[in-house]
Amino acid sequence: MSVSTQTIRHEYLRHNKKFPHVWCPGCGNGIVMAALLRAIYRMELSKDEVVLASGIGCSGRMPTYLDFNTLHTTHGRALTFATGVKLANPALNVVVVMGDGDATAIGGNHFIHAARRNLNLTAIIINNSIYGMTGGQYSPTTPFGARSTTSVYGHIEQAFSIAELAVTAGASFVARSTVYHAELLDTLIEQAMHKQGFAVVEVISNCHVQYGRRNQLGGAVDMLKSYKENAITVARAAQLTAEQLEGKTTIGVLTDRQLPVSTEEYEKIRLRAEQS
Amino acid sequence: MMPETPSKRQLLQGNEAIAHGALAAGCRFFAGYPITPASEISEELATLMPRSGGTFIQMEDEIASMGAIIGASLAGVKAMTATSGPGFSLIQENLGYACAAEVPCVVVNVMRGGPSTGLATSPAQGDVQMARWGTHGDHPIIVLAVSTVSDCFTTTIKAFNLSEQFRVPVIILSDEIVAHTRECVELPAPEEVYIINRIRPSVPPEWYKPYEGDSRGIPAMASFGDGYRHHITGLVHDDHGFPTENPGEILNFHQRLTQKITRGFPEIMMTRSYRLEDAEVAIIAYGSVARSAMRAVEEARQQGIRAGLLQLITLFPFPRSHVTPVLKQCRAVLVPEMNMGQISREVQRVNQSFCTVVKHNRVDGQVITPDELSTRLIKM
Question: Are B66 and A113 within 8 A, CB to CB?
């Protein structure tokens, strides 16, 4: 691509907003934000036709900084607001950014039902395995044994696998990347936004401040390196046993299927209702 | 296609009349979750919305219903949800968001017995103070009550109009009796319905401040997608909609939210007077209880008691300017409610020793009858 990320970023950042942002130096959120902007740039979408919604948490602040129609909702409820926006104006391109706690703990019910309902929405879930903004408490994706401010003796619960959860719940498109694999992330977000139906991109991201520090994972760079070393493509993963996959992160497109999209199905309902 | 609004006499249930009123007001988005005794509103709108070019959706819970109607309203479509006690508890979180972000929307609560699962099929009025103060933090809100099927239609239109005019959520409190009573109502033709729509920005997009109030403190409202890109948040925000921790801006936020309602008191406060001209004793009632109260006033009059009724349509902001003259005029006022005394405390609050305020409370799942009220009036 001939245009630099910096040029793209400045095209979409809100210049009337008081910076700096709330994210810590080295946070993966910035990588996800830039990937989203590159995807929107490539798709040649106008700013007016994009709605960016979020919930609460570090990820929830992303819309504040971007020059779209932006909606910072309540904790876990971003998908419900987005559902109303999309149904009220299906021409809008609605993207929802959530964190792991936001999307799968307090918003878990909304997440699985949004996947099942299959509206034409794009959900980006930044999974850093921790509640960062509130001070490092364990989330639904904190691994067994990990330390957090609420699992100081080691975590005793099993973690959700968000992408697999989305597949099971019925999403049309499900993909996973890490913040190390930024170029893959651009592509996956673009594919998700093009997809007709509910599309989920899970992004494994680093919270070296609240999670890495308490689990001896080093700084931001160390955590990114570990994503590089432990990532494995969907195709490669298919050839390995469960034991060989232990500790690995599968990246790429997990599911891409054609299902009835409820925004379009409702148009048919309107026709049926008018004729009845 | 024209909305599905009949222009003739119809035999309707209160819940159905609310659905028709919503459509007549221009509501084109409804999100709900099944709950007794409110479900007929969902059922009616699942049938009528798609015929009117609108959208009906059944969400996974009431939290989601409330989120969805806020989203729809932000995209420029008038939106409503309907629920009952337990669901009304769940909508409170996002209701506060609608108050803070000033998103017009209408919430119907068909009250049933509480607390908790309570009495799912019995009438009650136990959610009155919750309607005013259920969501956390200081916030503006308008609460209206309906007592007849005809009210269900007209008050729902009024609710949308107030919501659009003041950019505030409006709660309609119905109850199980009003919801399931069938009455013959005259519904106006669509062109006869007075409708207020939110003010759209008239300035160029680059000048638009989404939370800069007009002379009455009400900001013009752009819709997502119409070129006025802006930020909506539940955080305390400045005129641009961006989060702020500046004490001056926080104060402006709260003052404007409160004052936009205070300035609208004359338009918002609605009551109905019945035989109050020469009344010495009066009933102050709302919802289905006002029906029994009207009959009780007649029965008392037949016994030679000069009785009257002030029916509250607006419960909050509490219509003090309507209630005070009644308190000054009468020697005693009876406040019957299907709760332990939620509006009577408001009446007592504004009663500066003008008269005696008598409570009459019933929470056994039964209606308050005209006889029990006329008996009280005669003894007052």
Answer: no
For residue A241, what is the DSSP state? -
Q: What is the pLDDT of residues B15-69, one digit of tens each?
A: 999 999 999 999 999 999 999 999 999 999 999 999 999 999 999 999 999 999 9
Q: How far is B30 from chain A (nearest CA, A)?
A: 9
For residue B198, tell me if it sits in a domain.
no
Q: Are A74 and B74 in contact (CB < 8 Å)?
A: no
* Min Cα–Cα distance to chain B from A51, Å: 7
Sequence-distant (6+) residues with CB within 8 A of B57 are: A83, A87, B30, B31, B68
Which domain, by its residues, includes B167? 9-192
As a whole number of angstroms, the distance between CA B338 and CA B347 comes to: 16
Q: Which residue of B61, B64, B224 is in closest CB contact with A51?
A: B224
Q: A5-275 adopts what CATH topology?
A: Rossmann fold (3.40.50)
Distance CA A90, CA B330 (A): 57
Q: Say whether B66 and A80 touch across the interface (CB within 8 A).
A: yes
Mutate to test the interface with B, among A87, A97, A102 (most CBs of B within 10 A): A87
pLDDT tens figures, B63-122? 999 999 999 999 999 999 999 999 999 999 999 999 999 999 999 999 999 999 999 999
Select the residue of A48, A49, A64 nearest B242 (Cβ to Cβ).
A64
Task: Evaluate whether residue B102 is within a structural domain.
Answer: yes
Helix (H, G, I), strand (E, B) or coil at A11: helix
Q: Is the ipTM of this complex over 0.95?
A: yes
